[in-house]
Write a structure and sequence with these properties.
Layout: E1 8-13, H1 22-34, E2 38-41, H2 47-57, E3 64-67, H3 78-89, E4 93-95, H4 105-121, E5 125-130, H5 135-146, E6 150-155, E7 169-172, E8 183-186, H6 194-204, H7 211-215
Parallel strand pairs: 1-2, 1-5, 2-3, 3-4, 5-6
Antiparallel strand pairs: 6-8, 7-8
Helix pairs in contact: 1-2, 2-3, 4-5
């Protein structure tokens, strides 16, 4: 039986993503919400907290899902706990994990990896904000590519770079939407000819407001 894919987009990124990227993340959240997508996030610091705050400020918690490695709100980072409580109170959903507070480091790491996998599998596309090493975000991107999800990556500085090991290519999105400037991954196996690839590249570099449609899974 084919795996079920939901009309939701995952937003992930570095915990160290600077505050001055908050407006950009919020713009992407608003863009997706306005077009009827649900927004999937991990409930951590940095990029995740910007996503959570955007859902709260847009009064769009009912269109958000937080994928948690934790079994309860009390295990989330202290800095985001009050926002998690508000998110739930305003209709947001949490997909709970099973890691409890005080668990061994190995258990926590396994829970985080499993959380990322659940987020990708529940999403039809992924938007990622790379800043610095971003090792966890890179693993999430790799999982999304492996599963054939559409992926857009923003390279946000501090030595971050586009992943190069997936056998495809990255095309920068044009236009003036919040997704403009991001890089869309084009898998090499998705094209039967160079002409098909050129067509996809032209589509990807058109107005950024159309990029959301490119994210959606096509079977």
């Amino acid at each position: 039986m084919p795996e079920r894919v939901f009309r939701g987009i995952g937003l992930v990124g570095s915990r160290a993503l600077p505050e001055y990227f908050r407006a950009q993340v919020s713009g992407v959240v608003s863009c997706l919400i306005q077009r009827g997508y649900s927004v999937h996030s991990g409930g951590a610091l940095g990029a995740d907290s910007f996503v959570l705050d955007a859902l709260l400020s847009l009064d769009a918690c009912s269109q958000g899902v937080i994928f948690s490695p934790w079994a309860s709100v009390s295990s989330f980072p202290v800095a985001v706990r009050s926002s998690i409580h508000r998110f739930i109170a305003y209709g947001g959903r949490v997909d709970w994990g099973c890691v409890s507070a005080g668990s061994a480091r190995g258990v926590v790491i396994a829970g985080l990896l499993e959380r990322n996998s659940r987020l990708v599998r529940a999403s039809s596309g992924l938007v990622a904000f790379l800043y610095g090493e971003s090792s966890g975000t890179r693993r999430t991107i790799a999982e999304a590519v492996r599963l054939g999800r559409r992926v857009i990556v923003f390279v946000c500085g501090s030595g971050a770079s586009l992943p190069r090991q997936y056998g495809g290519s990255w095309v920068q999105l044009g236009g003036r939407s919040p997704l403009s400037g991001g890089y869309l991954f084009l898998p090499a196996i998705s094209f039967d000819s160079a002409q098909d690839k050129d067509t996809a590249q032209r589509e990807a570099t058109m107005e950024g407001t159309r990029a959301v449609r490119v994210l959606q899974e096509v079977h």
